[in-house]
Each structure stands twice: as C-alpha cells, then as structure tokens.
## 1
Amino acid sequence: MARKCVVTGRGTMYGNAVSHSHLKTRRIWKVNLVKKNIFLEDENRWVTVKLSTRALRTLKKKGLKAAIKDHGGDLKAIAPKKYVGIQPKAKAAAKS
C-alpha cells in the first residue's frame, strides 16, 4: 500500500536539498502517517484508516464523513462493509 493519506490524498513529495553553495541533490519528504481505528456511529462499526496527522486534526474537528466529503473522497472506497460481522477464526473456534 502506498504512503498516502486516505482522507486528504497527501503523499510523498520530491524536491531538491539546496546547500549553502547552491548544490542541489534530490530528496524526498514523506507524509507522517498513522493507523487509527475510528468508530462510525451511524453504521455501528469500527473502521481502520491510514491517515496523516494533519488529517487527524481535521477529523477531531469535523468528523470522518465530513472530512472525506470536503476532500472529494468516498467512504465506501476507504472502509468497505464486506468485513462487517465476520469474526476471526480464533474467536469462532473458542465459542464452540
């Protein structure tokens, strides 16, 4: 998976490191990503998203759905419902 924020779309940036003598060498700036579990109240489920710390501040202010909508994203692409209700095999075997 690429180093890209799922909410804002920010990713790795490229440019030059410029020395005092103006020699230019290529360098990269990586986005500061964290994995967070976020609870969607209206769907009653937890979603794991990989987002930048800047986007995390936005989520605290606006909420997940509003932040994704502002940046033109789609919640279904980020957090599909195909895993809802599926329990890991270890838990299912322990109940039997």
## 2
Amino acid sequence: MPMAQIASHSREETLALAGRFAQLLKGGEIIFLRGPIGAGKTVFVKGVAAALGLKSSPTSASFSLMKEYKNKQCRLFHIDLFRLEEGEVFNLGFEEMLEDERAIILAEWPDPIRHMLPADRLEMDFILKEGDERLIALQSFGRVSHALLEGLCKAANQ
C-alpha cells in the first residue's frame, strides 16, 4: 500500500492540485476523500470537475447523497455519505457506476460503501493545519490507484 503526503497552503492550491490530478483520470477510478467538515474535500471535487470540463460545479452532496456530472468524455459521480450507516446505502446505483468504464467515482465520507466497491482505490485524507493549510495523506490500493498516486505526487511537485 504505497503512501504519500502533499501539502496545500490555500484553497487555490487545492483547486490547482485537483486540476492536475484530473488530467490523470481516464475513467474507472475510485477515490475516497476523508476529513473533517471544511477540510477541502468538496473543493478538491470542484477542481477535478472544472478540469474535466464539466459544466456545473459540484456542491456538497450531503443532502442528495450522490450527484452525477457528465460530458462526452466522462461521467463523474460525487458521493457524500455524511451521517449514513452501511445499511442505509443500498439502491444508490453503485452497480451502474461500476459498469461504466468512463465513470470516475469521488466519494466523501466513504466508510459505509467501503465493502461495496472494488478494492482498487485511492484514499485521500484531508488534514486541517493552521489557517488555510491542509495536509493530504494519500494511500493507494491496487494497480490503477498506485499509478494515480505516483502521477499526483509528480503533479504536486511541478
């Protein structure tokens, strides 16, 4: 399980990092985003969506659980399972998401679905530091997510 850490010193840096990360996505990736409220998870999702050229900007999906954004090249599923337990997440359409090779799944508060999705995933833990600083701890599980982790670390150093 390869691991890495990336520092972000502002919202703008997090958006820029997400934009560079989006360039690595081909479809079929699963990314878990964890961290306290206000840590930058949704900001990261917004940066990915913007870089992928998706028209509408993601907002916190806490009240709708899942939102889909798509264009001709990809489908982005933004899942936010804040306040849900494992037994409450059935019938959200995971099977359909997983069958679509173009689907990119970004899941905030992912623990209730951890066992429902394939093991190959990139986990990102957003850790609050002083002011606008964040530390993003990354851990990859599988070949696809390991390539994402390596690419994101290279992108962060550019």
## 3
Amino acid sequence: MLNPIEGELFCIDKPLHWTSFEVVKRIRARLRKHLGIKSVRVGHAGTLDPLATGVLLVCTGRMTKRIEQLQTGIKEYVAGIRLGATTPSFDLETEVDATYPWQHITRERVEEVLQHRFTGTIEQVPPKFSACKVDGKPAYVLARKGREVEIRPKTLVIDEIEVIDCGLPAEPTLTIRVVCSKGTYIRALARDIGEALGSGAHLTSLRRTRIGDVRVEQCSSVTELLERLDAEEYVMPDMAEQQRIEAERIANRARAKALKARRHEDAARNSQID
C-alpha cells in the first residue's frame, strides 16, 4: 500500500519538454484525488530543464524532508555538444548567436582538454538562463527581460568526464559522460569546453542517468507512475496519522528502555568503583 502522507519516493524518467514542476503537479493532482484531500506535500530533488530527460526524484509527505539530502547525491549525465556555435542559453532554448572555426579540433585534443581542464575541482559560472538568484530573483527572469546578469563563479567537482562518441573530423559533434557534484550546469560545461578548445559550443541534448544510487533504468515514465497510482491501494490520511502516533509511541518506549538500561549499567559500574 502507498502511504503518501508518511512519505513515498518516486523515481521518474522525466520526458523531454516537461518541466520538473509539471511532473510534480501531475503526481500531486493524482494523489489528492485518491486521498480525497485538498493538499498533499510533493516536491522534487534536483531540477531538470525542459530540454533534459532522465532521473527525477519526487518525494511526498514527510519524505520531502529528505530532499536536501537526496540533492547532494553524485549525478551522472550523458550530454550532446555541438562545437563551432554558441547560443545565449548555452543550449537549444535560444537561437545560435555566433559561429566559430572548429576544423582544428581533434578527438585527441578534446580528450586532453577534458582530462586536464575539466576533471577534479573546478570553478564554473552558471548560465544567466538559470535559477541562480540575482538580487533575489532567478537569473533567467532577468535574462529574458534583456537585463545584464552577473553571476559569481561556483566551486564544483567533476569526478569523471569522458568522450563516448565523436563526430570529428567530419562533424563538430561530441557526446560526453559526466559524473559530477551538486550544482554543476552541464550547459555551462559545454560553453567552457568550447572556449577551451579555441571555438564555441552549446548543448544539444542532456540526459541525467543517475542520482546517487538511483539509475535511469530503475525509473518509471510519468505515464507508468500515474497508472500505478490509479491501481494502488492507499493508507488514508487518518490511518497514516494513527500509524505515525503509534510509531512514535514505540520509539519513545524503546528510548526509555535503553535509557533505563544505561542507568542500571552506570549504577553497577559506580558500585564496583566504590
């Protein structure tokens, strides 16, 4: 039985063009319907852009308290990059704004740059089209209004980065796998890789394949999850509250018993010393 009030963790393979909030909204609406209540806590651990797919962890009820912990997990991405052109958003959200030579770039040079410039602890300036706060507002809100946005560099860690496909020398395309810390913007990584290669670059695809121990192969599509939510039985809110109270009573009795045992041990130890 599902217990959304006490807390569930759903592992979703987010579809292309969906926002992370849209996934949360769909799940929340379905849970409200089945539980017969107006409000249920639902949140996600780590935003994925609409043009990205892959692992999205969605928590409900008291499980939402673990969101910050889940967000700190190591993340793995597979990213498509096009060399020789840039866009303001560093991906396909915006049109190409500049082109650069790329014919001088070889796969060997790419692999050398990735290992020497983008492995370990690095500094990265997040994209202006991002949720980073500037003057209390998300940077993308200001950027879309045409305002200049200045964002400070952030320190992050790239544990692994490798080329898994390369179109060079025929085509200026790369596919890379990246294992990195929380806060890494793969769009900004594409930008920086292009600059390091003496060219420009932007992201053409992005798939998050892992968060912590959760791999994309373990995830359900949104459709599969919604079908499961319709088919499952639920612990209703009043029963969930009764179970929570009983669990607290059991835990309190266990703590009291352990405390009493420690006091007996301390008393016995003190009597031996005396």
